[in-house]
Amino acid sequence: xxxxxxxxxxxxxxFVAVSVYLSVRKVDGAGVAQTPELKNITLIIWGxxxxxxxxxxxxxxxxxxxxxxxx
Length: 71
What we know:
This protein has 71 residues and is mainly α. Helix content is 82%, strand content 0%.
């Protein structure tokens, strides 16, 4: 369980760091200038990806708790 919390914290810090990077960059990898609308779309897509990862972590937490209850 302790390892799960450490890994979750690392993933959270990386997610926030990438979110900040996506918010402050002026040009994306294709060379397109980032307007506020494009930044919002990018952050929404990144948020959906983060939500999928978060749901996976919750499922894994439920599995870990179920295993701990069996012991």
